[in-house]
What does this fold into?
Amino acid sequence: MSSRRRIPSLIALLAAGATTVAGCSDSSSDKALPENPSVIILSGDGMGSQQRTAIQYYLYGLDERQPMDALPYAGFLDTIPGDAEFVVSDSAAGATAWAIGQKVPNGTTGLGPNGEEVPTLMNIAKDRGMSTGLVDDHDVTNATLAAFGSPVEDRDLKVKIAEGYLDNGVDVLFGGGEKYWYPEGEPGKISDKGEDDASEGESNLVQRAQDLGYQYAFDQTTFGELSGPKALALVQDSAKRRSTEVEGYDYKTDPNYVAPEKLVSKALDILGSNDKGFFLVIESDDLDSDGHEHDAQNMMLAGESVNEMVKVITEYQKEHPEVLLIVTADHETGGMAIENVLDDDGEPETNSDQLADDPVPYWAESKPENMPLPGGGVPKRSGPFAIKGTERKFKVDWTTPEHTGTMVPVTAAGPLAEKFTGVHPNTHVYDVITELWGQN
It folds into this structure.
């Protein structure tokens, strides 16, 4: 940048809500809507404003706006579910609010408030003749994606979700979770590197997909050969996290690892060949896992992938201005807070809680890098982290190993993106998309 002007805080950006950024697809209500608009939802699972701010500081510093926050329109979405007694949402209810435009109880995955079948955005897209796709950096059968492509009564019915994707004809399916696609005892194409990698499916769904006309990929070579129009890629999931948790594993040398941004780029190549447009839902689930485990280090690595995916999409929008991109989250995870660190004399700085994390999740107790140190010391995974390009440092604190009920940021670019300025219920995602598609 020729002018070294400090960028505004994320909250200020969201409050302004209508800045324009060169290179992003702009939008205006008084412009004619495209005849066949496409839509991309990118969900950073568990990514609240504090997560987005930490990613900004660590990877981009104070003078360059990160891609996900450089989109021209910004606002907030609430996350409260449809339960009469609860205020904190799970991923299933959060994604279902987007998918069907109704608040539903926690655990509800793509179904109506009373468990009834209702049209999802993916059904509507199919009826319009559009191509459809689901991409995940973790398990492609996760609740967020299932809410769109395979509604079920229980989000843990992973095999049924995979079967539903094929039954419903989702055109592009990229991500991890190979173990649900192969029957128990059949190892699949990716070697089992973790304790939870063994196959636990009921039949060979990969073979079924191929019989239905899907091309299949499982490593970088076969992935590069995919051309569509139907494609299934089951590659190494959560690879960056594995590098910090599985001894001897390095995602950079794993032939079964395909970077999330490459998954998105290929999905756009395949889906974009349909003149009637496409509907693509992308999730970074690793952000949520890292919040549950109080792992800010890996959370920011996952945020790096989110920004790389946004860069791919905004570059695509330059030649395809009919594409609406929405970047948001289903909820926040961990009650994360950015704080000062100890000063040079070991004394707490102003506005800094030095009593460490509260509490540590039970499933992370075997990971000492996540655990608070004696005397309130900061665990390695919580900092201190440098703000890029400065001498400032920050640490991360947590209030819960679960989700919280805070509002989450939403940023957008493309036709009707300006509709996301201000504060809205999370069902607003459905409302804007169906308005774009002429359903309202």
Summary: The chain is about 30% helix and 15% strand. The mean pLDDT is 88. Residues 18 and 353 are 35 Å apart (CA to CA). The domain at 10-336+402-436 is CATH 3.40.720.10 (Alkaline Phosphatase, subunit A).
